[in-house]
Design goal:
By secondary structure, the chain is α/β, with parallel strands linked by helices. It is built from six helices and 13 strands. The strands form two sheets. Strands 1, 2, 3, 4, 5, 6 and 7 form a seven-stranded mixed β-sheet that branches. The chain has a six-stranded mixed β-sheet with strand order 9-8-10-11-12-13, covered by helices on one side. The radius of gyration is 28 Å and the shape is globular.
Length: about 300
Amino acid sequence: MKKRGFLQIPFAWLFAIIVGAVILFLAVYISMKLIGTEQTTQDAKAGKEIGVLLNPLETGFETGKTTTLNMPVETRIYSRCSNQGIFGEQTIRVSQKNFNKWSETDIDVSFPNKYLFSENFVEGKKFFIFSKPFNFPFKVADLIYITSKNYCFISAPEEVAEEVADLKQENLFLENCPEKSTNVCFLGGAECEINIDYNAGYVSKKTGKVYFNNDALMYAGIFSEDNLYECEAKRLMQRVAQLTLLYNNKAELVSKSGCNSNLGGELSQLNNFAGTFSGTINLNAMNSVVKKLEEKNDVAECRLW
């Protein structure tokens, strides 16, 4: 009886097939690792570049500045805030979409001197950024707002409507608003995702209520996530506390030359308020001191700012 035939493969061929499969697996594995490492590097680089691009928005003027940021791929920009240290810290994390998957990175790019207000993350290829100086009553910092979706300002006060119109920012509307815009209402309404009480000084959303005492903080409350807003407000007060010390020293110096600014008492009060600041609900209690400082400095023989 004849034996049934079977495939005979020389050992050298079998060895070559196994080695080839291992090499192919390693090549694919290493390539994926390298792609992941390169993507992490690109995300970190993008975060640093965004920080650099924000520098020209530090205005030094009373009016706001606006610009756009265009990314080559779908991008998410995450904003984080910390109150640790003298001035706290602003961090940015970037994730980009490649091969229909969002990259994951734990690399944060940090800035001690920037105050960025946004939602938990903003997503898209085109981002809209504008800034506005925050005075309290002296210049404290420039607040930077970053958005990627459309906002419709409904029944805005005249000064707000004028500023939005003057900005000419593509995603901010006063009329003829696109569908699916986020409605920002100043007189309330059922269709409003964000409600502003301009006189009482608060921004109300489904997530809660935050407070403001000037337009710079109002925009911050509109465009940012509540916890980020409160954290950045505390950072601003940390800066206010340090600036009051500097201005108090300046007041003592000019008084020695025979020019009394007469602001020492109010500067000490503001320093105490800023040092114990626990949330934006405290802003109203600080307004009278801020107003006195502003009025006294305007008529002082030796102005401090």
